[in-house]
Give the backbone structure.
Amino acid sequence: MHENFCGFCGQSASVDTITFKETFNDFLESVFSVNAPLVLTFRLLILNPGKLFREYLSGKRKTYYKPVSFFILSTFLYLVLRSVINYNPASLSGVNVDGMLLVEAGKYMVKNINNILFFLVFALGIFLKLFFFKRYSFVEYLAISFYLAGIYTLMGAVFMIYLKFVNPNPTYVTFILFFFYIVYSLISFFKDKKIKVALKAIFVFLFSFIVYIVLGFFLSLLIVWLNQH
């Protein structure tokens, strides 16, 4: 009986050749099963982000999808969806004047928003540290910021479908939804007085987006200017 199994790990002594079907099934199991890290991570980010943040920072990291990986996956899904539905964000209503440097920079920023989102990640990390400095380190807040920016990217992906097929006029729905998500997630994360945390969360959101937009637009302006000269 023992000859059929390894005495140390219990694995079958008879190992078949790895097949594509087996590899693909393992991938689906690890990513999309009920207890998969990605599914658990996304579920908690929606239902109880504070629990995810606390447990991940406390060391339970194999249980959840890593924040940087989640951000990269969200960005990848955004780009794939944009390609599939053939959506051009630079064609938004009100952004149709050619030749002006500032307008072209605005177009560039909107079209390459996935590359500029790193500014939002670092801005969130910085202001989380400034307003909640005693709790965690900057690097730990940065990990939370990658989760938050990933959710923002997914919101943008969903709203992109609305802009493409329902109403092409740009609105601030994603911006407003993310504002409420930031407040909700930080209240869930910090078990303090809700009003105090909510006020700090509002400042974190506002300052982060100001820095994100200013730096993103400045970089876009610089790139467009260099391309024109």
About this structure: The longest helix spans residues 194-228.
